[in-house]
UniProtKB/TrEMBL annotation:
Highest taxon of the lineage: Bacteria
Organism, scientific name: Streptosporangium brasiliense
Domain Helix-turn-helix intervals: 7-59
This protein's name: DNA-binding transcriptional regulator AlpA
InterPro entries: DNA-bd_dom_put_sf (IPR009061), HTH_17 (IPR041657)
Length: 63
């Protein structure tokens, strides 16, 4: 059985990114620098953990 991909909340994402501001998060989304997410019927945003981790990996610099 395949494990379901976790949906991350905005506070979880901010925490994983070391405390960037919520405004920065939404600005990155507006300009396309962050993976698209899912807007729930209550207006909250969720992002799949796999997409978040792939995005983080894409930022890795070649040393």
């Amino acid at each position: 059985m395949k494990k379901r991909d976790e949906l991350m909340t905005v506070p979880e994402i901010l925490d994983e990114l070391g405390g960037i501001s919520e405004r920065t998060f939404y600005r990155w989304r507006e300009i396309g620098k962050f993976p698209t997410g899912i807007r729930l019927p209550n207006g909250k945003i969720r992002v799949y953990r796999s997409e978040f981790e792939a995005w983080l990996e894409s930022l890795r610099e070649v040393a």
